[in-house]
Design brief:
The complex is a heterodimer of chains A (111) and B (112). By secondary structure, chain A is mainly β. Chain A has no helices and eleven strands. Classes of the chains: A mainly beta (111), B mainly beta (112). At the A-B interface, strand 4, strand 5 and strand 10 of A face strand 5, strand 9 and strand 10 of B.
Chain lengths: 111, 112
Amino acid sequence: SQQGEEDPQALSIQEGENATMNCSYKTSINNLQWYRQNSGRGLVHLILIRSNEREKHSGRLRVTLDTSKKSSSLLITASRAADTASYFCATRGSGNTPLVFGKGTRLSVIA
Amino acid sequence: KAGVTQTPRYLIKTRGQQVTLSCSPISGHRSVSWYQQTPGQGLQFLFEYFSETQRNKGNFPGRFSGRQFSNSRSEMNVSTLELGDSALYLCASSVQNQETQYFGPGTRLLVL
């Protein structure tokens, strides 16, 4: 069963705009991760944020985590056509629990 | 370091057959996880191995099995294939299971 639920399911923006994707989850977590997948290929890890962190940056990516609301957001600034992909959040509970993925947000960046 | 490799990349089988997929993790990674990805169900966790031991198993029937060898390479097997087993099967490795997972390109299985 999916732990994370991304919102929106699909997003279409112009190049240069910012893209924001949200993820909500149900149970307590040890960390939350965001991955990107280009059409039909393997996933690429973008960023990991631990449960005791509130915000993290990596290049044009900014991730926030609100454990009280059980939600996270991924912001991609100054988007490029190459950012077109599906983005997944994945949560990891404590102990030896598996990484559980949401269904993803499909981002289209139009040049 | 070389990335995660999966073989074969593409596979066509018929119902009732069985299939074995292989995954070679990044050197030094001892944890290997398998996922099934379909348009309808998204990414579903299959199993996770660490040092040759299955540490977690997802909600899949017993037709799905796996193993990990002493060199951390892993295989998964699906017996008595069904049409619904058509999917992209992804393998991921990590140093330890709590951290970042590195994914292979996947094996696309089509069951006819």
